[in-house]
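User: Run a structure prediction on this.
Assistant: Running it now.
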Amino acid sequence: MTSTNFEPKYLSWLSELDGRIVAAAKDIKVLSKLSWHSGIQERFLEGVARGKPVLPSVEYAAIDLSANRQELAECMAQLAGAGEPLRRFLYDTAESYHTLCLLLEGIGTTVLSEHSHTLYGHPADAVSSGHVSNLEAAQHFLDVSHAYKQDEGLKEADYCLSSEVLATEMRQRLKEVFTEDQVRVEIDADMVSKAAAGATRVRLRANTSFSEYDLDQLLQHEAFVHSLTAINGKQQRFQCFSLGAPRTTGSQEGLATFAEMVTGVMDIGRLERLALRVVGIDHVLKGADFIEAYRFFESVGQTEVESFNSAMRIFRGVPVTGGAAFTKDVVYLHGLMEVHTFFRWAMQHKKLGMTRNFFAGRMTLSDVVNLDPVFETDVLQDPQYLPPWMTRTSALAGYLAFSVFVNRISVETLGDDFTFVKP
């Protein structure tokens, strides 16, 4: 079986397994199972106000996903030995959800942390070429941000937008891209993050002030990557391409943050927040408890509510006493660097056209490369929608061509070429 000569019987067999994987994965929810109710924040901050913070008491309902695991395991057994890229894609997707089941069944224990590392990574993991780790990269960006604050200062926006105003503006902008599909914008009072997106809706956190930067970031990140890839994935023969499988989280978030960067809405403050998440996770894995994590975020200038939410993201589903963490927030910075490297690689090897396939569904970087021959057949469809910046490929090519070349210049030696004249 080759990727350019698919027999109908084989495709039918894959479609059946695809349907079974989608059905088994349908009810496996992550963040909703790990979320904390608002009263926990209120009680903790009351203790902070009295000068006597107390470790939060969080109770989780037991989760039994044994039936899902068994079904996924049976699909994996049939798909095992995959050499053909579509079969490998389905196998890896099933395996990813199988691991996610184990993660959720370990809720409230350090077991969750172990599976989180498998799915989302660790601060000590290497980036791309292996020359630096996630933690080293995060520290670099924090050093740059600190130097910028010292020199220029990070200025807040002069005005703020309410979630209602932001929703109205987003709805108009979404119509310009999703011409044949509707993506709803809803306001949610129970959200932890500022926003989240699926194939049919973008949710915004209620009672939150947003800046113009937030508007553009949310459009590029949530709508024109997360919603867009889910919608395009639904157009594929295999519905696993529309799933937010945990194995695709790093590439999805990397593509979304890369979109922020190439459209000019990734400010230094946003980069700093991504880096702080990695450092915070590292502190917790090394033993910091919830109070110590909260104080870490507060020490770098976050408000009490922001510091609580930042610490809470790390402790979702694990003991608050330290040593274990929900490591999902590692993927943002790691994914950004991996995706940026991939686009540069595609430019350098004259494969920029391949990057369009990244938007045809939810995939990893390896999927995009391995499935490239399949996109040349009628088995997989080109993306129906592309974000605006991907429709202007000449501008993207210019940015990447410059990035590829200047990467050969060592910043450390530039000072030798300049003469600084003191006033």
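The chain has a mean pLDDT of 90.
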